[in-house]
Write a structure and sequence with these properties.
Elements: E1 15-19, E2 27-35, E3 45-50, E4 55-60, E5 66-71, E6 74-81, E7 88-94, E8 103-105, E9 108-110, H1 113-119, E10 134-138, H2 143-148, H3 157-163, E11 175-177, H4 187-199, E12 230-234, E13 237-241, E14 248-252, E15 269-275, E16 278-284, E17 289-290, E18 297-298, E19 303-312, E20 315-323, E21 332-341, H5 359-364
Parallel strand pairs: 1-7, 2-8, 2-9
Antiparallel strand pairs: 2-5, 3-4, 3-6, 6-7, 10-12, 10-21, 11-21, 12-13, 13-14, 15-16, 16-19, 17-18, 19-20, 20-21
């Protein structure tokens, strides 16, 4: 067995390297997250990603800044994200030479976000916007799983059995607040979600079929996890497109008021502004919609504030705070990470999702007529 050797990745991406060896099963990575003064950072999201197979784990640091994630053989990318701090990424090479169950250790010292922004000078468009144009790949490799179940990040048991796969014991969670990774439902809304879950496989009507299955535009915060966003920028606007169901968003960069409350849109009404390296987007006027295939949902009262932050020339973080006073007890925050797609031949293909979509009606039978 050869020992894997790590090399530092590009400094622009802020990637550090660590060389270790571990058993194929049963090993874990532990560590502590602090600020530059050595104070523990509680509530930071630790994301362990194994590209290719798509194995991943997502945990949150405790009050002492400590974390623990399972790892197996492969070349992992370990990322840390916390509001107010610049994200950190390190690479971890794991081979099969360490005793089963032995722990590996990796600590992080996070820099303030403003210090990182000062050290990184992004390109700008001719009209002065931060240049985020191009295509961005979903970095957590679990977008499809999160679209199935936002809370657990797991697909159905049938999905794993049919492919001979096993789910990770600690899958990535998109929800970073509340810390338990659950949608903070009011009691009536939790009962409705549970009813949705109980009926989604044999829906008695279209109300129990996810918008994704009906090829609806995903809206926020589902848009980023529904495909690799392609961004176009013109004076006064940011335009985003994904392949799924011809989804697109047109974000106006001004302080004009939102459209009237009587106008309800699949993707909502967006107004954007730039704060440093961050595109802040205020989204309202969205149709009630499931956030995944299992019936987690938001209502038309939902107000979403998105933050698309360029963290390096090749990385971007998406953070969305979803405030739904009609259904939630508190705002919910979700986070996704993206890497720039440098493939010059990448194209968005036509996705005729809704054309001839008889499958939905076959599922609900006579109830859908």
């Amino acid at each position: 067995m050869r020992t894997s050797t790590l090399r530092c990745m590009a400094m622009a991406a802020g990637i550090l390297a660590l060389s270790v060896a571990a058993s194929a099963q049963g090993s874990k990575l532990t560590g502590t997250v602090t600020d530059t003064n050595g104070n523990p950072v509680a509530g930071a999201t630790i994301r362990a990603l194994l590209p290719g197979p798509g194995d991943n784990a997502d945990v949150v640091t405790n009050a002492k800044g400590e974390y623990e994630v399972p790892v197996s053989v492969g070349d992992w990318v370990i990322s840390v994200a916390m509001k107010g701090f610049a994200p950190e990424h390190k690479q971890l090479a794991v081979s099969d030479r360490l005793i089963k169950g032995q722990s590996l250790k990796m600590d992080f010292a996070l820099k303030p976000a403003d210090a990182a922004a000062a050290a990184f000078t992004p390109r700008r468009t001719p009209d002065g916007q931060i240049d985020i144009s191009g295509t961005w790949n979903d970095n957590h490799a679990t977008g499809d799983s999160i679209n199935y179940d936002l809370e657990t990040g797991h697909r159905s048991a049938e999905h794993y059995t049919g492919r001979g796969e096993k789910p990770m014991p600690n899958p990535e969670h998109a929800i970073v607040d509340p810390l338990d990774g659950k949608v903070p439902y009011q009691s009536w809304a939790l009962a409705k979600r549970n009813e949705n879950q109980a009926r989604y496989q044999n829906p008695p009507g279209l109300d129990y079929v996810a918008g994704r299955s009906k090829c609806w535009l995903p809206g926020s915060p589902g848009f980023p996890s529904s495909g690799n966003p392609t961004v176009l920028q013109i004076p006064g606007y940011v335009i985003m497109m994904i392949e799924f169901s011809h989804s697109y968003r047109i974000i106006r960069l001004d302080d004009s008021p939102h459209v009237g409350s009587n106008i309800v849109l699949m993707s909502g009404d967006s107004r954007g502004r730039w704060e440093g390296n961050t595109l802040v987007v205020d989204v309202t006027n969205m149709k009630e919609q499931w956030l995944d295939l299992l019936g987690n949902f938001r209502t038309p009262a939902a107000h979403v504030v998105e933050r698309w932050t360029l963290t390096s020339p090749t990385t971007m973080t998406y953070e969305a705070t979803v405030d739904d006073p009609q259904a939630y007890t508190k705002p919910m925050k979700v986070v996704f990470h993206f890497n720039r797609n440098n493939n010059p031949n990448y194209e968005i293909y036509e996705d005729t999702c809704h054309e001839g979509n008889a499958g939905v009606y076959e599922r609900v039978g006579r109830h859908a007529q």
